[in-house]
């Protein structure tokens, strides 16, 4: 069976997700779909001058 974009669990986009996310996964949806989920930490910096 040939892999299509809908059934692949890797590729250029998912490589980016893997690098940026703390956790991620792929879940199949029906015969032709998938859902990609990700959890990422958000770090904020505050410029003291901008906070006034």
3D architecture notes:
The protein is of the alpha+beta class and 52 residues long. The chain is 17% helix and 27% strand. The chain has one helix at 12-20, and strands at 23-29, 33-39. It has a two-stranded antiparallel sheet. A hairpin with a 3-residue loop joins strand 1 (23-29) and strand 2. The chain is elongated, with a radius of gyration of 17 Å. The termini are far apart.
Features:
alpha+beta, 52 residues, two-stranded antiparallel ribbon
Shape: elongated
pLDDT < 50 runs, ≥5 residues: none
Structural class computed from helices and strand pairing: alpha+beta
- Please tally the β strands and state the result: 2
Question: How many whole angstroms does the radius of gyration measure?
Answer: 17 Å
Q: Can you give the mean pLDDT?
A: 75
What oligomeric state do the depicted chains represent? Answer: single chain
What distance separates the N and C termini?
60 Å
User: Largest sheet, if any?
Assistant: 2 strands, antiparallel
Order of helices and strands: HEE
Helical percent range? 10-25%
Spatial arrangement of strands, main beta sheet: 1-2
Count of helical regions: 1
Strand content: 25-35%
